[in-house]
Structure formats: structure tokens, C-alpha cells
Write a structure and sequence with these properties.
The structure is a single chain. The protein is α+β, with helices and mostly antiparallel strands. The chain folds into two domains: 59 residues; 110 residues, Orthogonal Bundle (Arc Repressor Mutant, subunit A). It is built from eight helices and six strands, in the order αβααββαβαααββα. The strands form two sheets. Strands 1-3-2 form a three-stranded antiparallel β-sheet. It has a three-stranded antiparallel β-sheet with strand order 4-6-5. A hairpin with a 4-residue loop joins strand 5 and strand 6. The N and C termini lie far apart (52 Å). The relative contact order is 0.14.
Length: 184
């Protein structure tokens, strides 16, 4: 198989994404390789029980054989990301792919905005301080590949195209709930 297969597998199997707009040269290289050889990678990973999925500017894995989960269990599992997205959109309505931010700005807003502070405390109940909450939030975003640091000196991060995945999932949940409500 191709030279990058192991690196692609290691990243995507951890639940992270490859984004078209990554400023990390290795991730950008892996993204481009997948884009150029999608059908080869798709076939290879399918044999391993992994489905290589393509979104709007990102790639990720889904499993071909998942344990059967109820809709309620799936929603509970995604509830944390719904809350994170709600927090981020309250922080800034334009928070999406391409958006740039700093932990210090998020922390400032948490300290000044009562609604944002309440939402932040609900996000990560085990975190004791607003600083811990902001850092945990950014770690979650970067760990998934939804954001990446673009300037270590001033702590600037950029939201990647992979963030659209979370937005799309929340929109699906919203649409599903609206459909259920309207049919009652």
C-alpha cells in the first residue's frame, strides 16, 4: 500500500480528521494524498472494517460494523459536542471553519458574560476554574482536528474545515427533532 497509509490510519483511527485547510504541513500532505488516491485508500481501509468518509474539506473514519445503539444512546453520546457547539456559537456566532481565536479571548468573554460562564461551567464540570475550562475546550477542539494552533507565540488558533462535521451533526439532530415534533 501507499507510504502514508500508516500515518493516515494512526490519525483517523483516533477519531481525528484530515482537513484541507490545515496549516500543519504533514496533515496537509496526508489530506492531499487521500484526495488524490481516495478510491485506493477507501478500498484498503474498508477491508479493515473502516469506512473512509469524505466531508466538505475533510476526511474521517466511520466503522462498518458498529454495535447497535438506540437513537437515545447516540444522542447522549453526542450531547457533549452539542453543548460545545452551543457554547462556541454563543461566544461568536461566526465560529466556524476559518475562524481564528485565542484562549485568552475565550477566557475574557467567560469572565464578562454571565450566559457564557454558565454554559462553560456545564461543559466540563470537573474543571475548577474558567482557565481550566477554556484550556480543556481548546484541547478537545485540537484533539479532534477541529482547530489547530497557527501562532504559538500569541496563542492563536484556527478552526479547520473538519469543524463542519460537528456543525452538520448538530444540524441533523435539529432537523430530526423538528421532523419528530411536526409529526406529533
Amino acid at each position: 500500500m501507499r507510504a502514508n497509509t500508516q500515518k493516515i490510519f494512526e490519525r483517523l483511527s483516533k477519531g481525528a480528521f484530515l482537513s484541507v485547510d490545515s496549516s500543519d504541513l504533514e496533515i496537509k500532505h496526508l489530506y492531499n494524498d487521500v484526495e488524490e488516491n481516495y478510491s485506493d485508500y477507501e478500498s484498503y481501509f474498508l477491508e479493515l472494517g473502516l469506512r473512509l468518509e469524505e466531508g466538505d474539506g475533510y476526511y474521517y473514519f466511520s466503522r462498518t460494523h458498529e454495535a447497535k445503539l438506540t437513537v437515545e444512546q447516540k444522542l447522549q453520546g453526542f450531547a457533549q459536542w452539542v453543548d460545545i457547539l452551543d457554547f462556541l456559537k454563543t461566544y461568536d456566532l461566526t465560529f466556524s471553519a476559518g475562524f481564528q481565536f485565542r484562549i485568552t479571548h475565550i477566557l475574557e468573554r467567560i469572565n464578562l458574560d454571565v450566559e457564557l460562564r454558565d454554559k462553560a461551567r456545564k461543559l466540563f464540570r470537573k474543571q475548577n476554574t474558567n482557565q481550566d475550562i477554556a484550556e480543556k475546550l481548546v484541547n478537545e477542539l485540537t484533539g479532534m482536528g477541529f482547530a489547530e494552533v497557527i501562532n504559538e507565540q500569541d496563542g492563536t488558533y484556527k478552526v479547520t474545515a473538519a469543524f463542519r462535521y460537528a456543525e452538520e451533526m448538530v444540524n441533523l439532530i435539529t432537523i430530526y427533532n423538528e421532523d419528530e415534533t411536526s409529526s406529533l
